[in-house]
Amino acid sequence: MTTAIRVMVVDDHPMWREGVSRDLTTAGYDVVATTGEGRQAVRIAAAARPDVVVLDLQLPDVAGVEVITGLAAEIPGVRILMLSASGEQQDVLDAMKAGATGYLLKSAGLSEFLDAVSRTAAGDTVFTPGLAGLVLGEFRRLAVTPPASDAPGADAPKLTERETEVLRLVAKGLSYRQIAERLVLSHRTVQNHVQNTLGKLQLHNRVELTRYAIEKGLYS
């Protein structure tokens, strides 16, 4: 029997929070906790250990970006899907730089939302259409003059040819499913390559991996 994906919902609007939780439960997810406050979310998550946190950007006590940082400290590798009404460039970039796994606007349909949660749990970086290009563009801009200490050298981690190939496609914004189809591999094999690469590079998520690939000139 497959274990249900554990999800925590953080949103300060009770009706929205309850509706999202109900939709997730109906779809077979295990909603382990809900809250409308950022600080409480970090405390609860430490005990609830969700696989995915669905997080609103605007919270009454602390900003969603601060919550992302707190969640990452409590649960290394936690996957965070932002679900926000804001599509402002700075909001999206701040969330992704803080460590969010993906960013979805609240205007998304139910099927799109549920698919995003599933893909987030699997390790994919998910965006509302149009936002992925914004984030990749910012990472490319930051990589124009990377710090000298980041320059590849003799001590740089050694990736296999296949890991490097997968990394290039990750940097292009392809999902695991798309990478698997492109390379004629299984979805699980692609996941394993990404996890191995994250371990070698001591990175935490696909967002950091994408930035690394761009900084090293692997985006082409």
Kindly report the oligomeric state of this protein. Answer: single chain
N-to-C SSE series?
EHEHEHEHEHHHHHH
**Domain tally:** 2
Quick one: overall form? globular
The percentage helix is 40-55%
Q: So, the CATH homologous superfamily of the largest domain?
A: Response regulator
Radius of gyration, in Å, reads: 17 Å
Assign the structural class, choosing from mainly alpha, mainly beta, alpha/beta, alpha+beta, or little secondary structure.
alpha/beta
CATH topology of the largest domain: Rossmann fold
- N-to-C CA distance: 42 Å
CATH architecture label of the largest domain? 3-Layer(aba) Sandwich
User: Got a strand count?
Assistant: 5
Q: Give start-end ranges of low-pLDDT stretches.
A: 145-154
Write down the overall mean pLDDT. 83
